[in-house]
Amino acid sequence: MLALSLAVLASLAGSAVAHGGLANYTVGDTWYRGYDPDEDPAEQLGQAWMIQRQWASINPIFDVLDPFLACNNPGTPPPSYIPIRAGDNITAVYWYWLHPVGPMTVWLAACGDSCINVDPATVQWFKIWEAGLLSGNVPEGMWYQKQFQNWDGSPDLWPVTIPLNLKPGLYMIRHEILSIHIENKPQFYPECAHLNVSGTGHDYPPEDHLKTFPGAYSPFDPSINIDIYTDEMKNTTTYEIPGGPIWDGFAIRDKYCLGC
Ligand SMILES: *[C@@H]1O[C@H](CO)[C@@H](O)[C@H](O)[C@H]1NC(C)=O
Ligand SMILES: *[C@@H]1O[C@H](CO)[C@@H](O)[C@H](O)[C@H]1NC(C)=O
Ligand SMILES: *[C@@H]1O[C@H](CO)[C@@H](O)[C@H](O)[C@H]1NC(C)=O
Ligand SMILES: *[C@@H]1O[C@H](CO)[C@@H](O)[C@H](O)[C@H]1NC(C)=O
Ligand SMILES: [Cu+2]
Predict the structure, then answer these.
(1) What whole-number distance in Å separates Cα of residue 34 and Cα of residue 129?
(2) How much is the pTM?
(3) Which of 4, 21, 179, 213 has the fewest CB atoms within 10 Å, measured from its CB?
(4) What is the pLDDT of residue 253?
(5) How would CATH label the architecture of 2-256?
(6) Ligand 4 within 6 A of 152 CB?
(7) Who lines ligand 1 at CB under 6 A?
(8) Ligand 5 centroid – CA 181 distance (Å)
(9) 109 burial class (0-12, 13-18, 19+ CB within 10 angstroms)?
(10) pLDDT for residue 249
(11) Where is the signal peptide (predicted)?
(12) Residue 256: predicted pLDDT
């Protein structure tokens, strides 16, 4: 275990393995293999088992207006979907993650009849989950991004719940890690998969939760274009996660169904 983490660290020290990405998804006990940028694309693209959009490299996206901010580059769609019931968890698996500072968010977008011909840059995304600074100050505090890392060789697990009342259908799910450890040079790490959501829900978020990528973020957002190493940041113990409020489906149910 220790050996593995040292090996990982060693390999990270001087090489291109420096970032990381979303390798697999689990729902209950079922594992879904994601795209692997280190393997031959020809053996992955279009395979019946593929459920994740292609991300050609582990490198970050630096520009909030990058045309591939939604589902990474090139975002080639897979043929298959992860089946999941609304209310169940989907867990993103990273085999390692290094960067400690910045928010993590999860988004969904409805595809309509199929996700395959959908351009992730044109659909309406809504945020269903977020976590940022958990305690302490901005440069040195505990962020979820740091807390979710394991250094004993076990994978880093990121579970989120598909909103119980979400109406069934085909959706894209987008996991984004935003790393802000370099001054005024944010790094975005998005990956997307296709979901086939079942259940009995009827809800969908209101208009003000719907965003596009690019579009959801401003280059001038002080949470994105940020220098975390100033004296002021040492005194700052709050961090506003970009992209607006989350929609978890519960608020609307409670409004119409008091006592449910
Ligand atoms: C996880 O995904 C990687 C490719 O990203 C694949 O090689 C591996 O087999 C997957 N693991 C499981 C348990 O599905
Ligand atoms: C489901 O995900 C939530 C986070 O969204 C987490 O708090 C909870 O522990 C997860 N449940 C299981 C069974 O993994
Ligand atoms: C989605 O799942 C439903 C069953 O819940 C199934 O009937 C349907 O064919 C699936 N759609 C796709 C595109 O896989
Ligand atoms: C940070 O807080 C300390 C202690 O309260 C104070 O002396 C200092 O002026 C603050 N610095 C800034 C940049 O706000
Ligand atoms: Cu990196």
Answers:
(1) 21
(2) 0.91
(3) 4
(4) 47
(5) Distorted Sandwich (2.70)
(6) no
(7) 23-24, 31, 33-34, 36
(8) 10
(9) buried
(10) 81
(11) 1-18
(12) 52
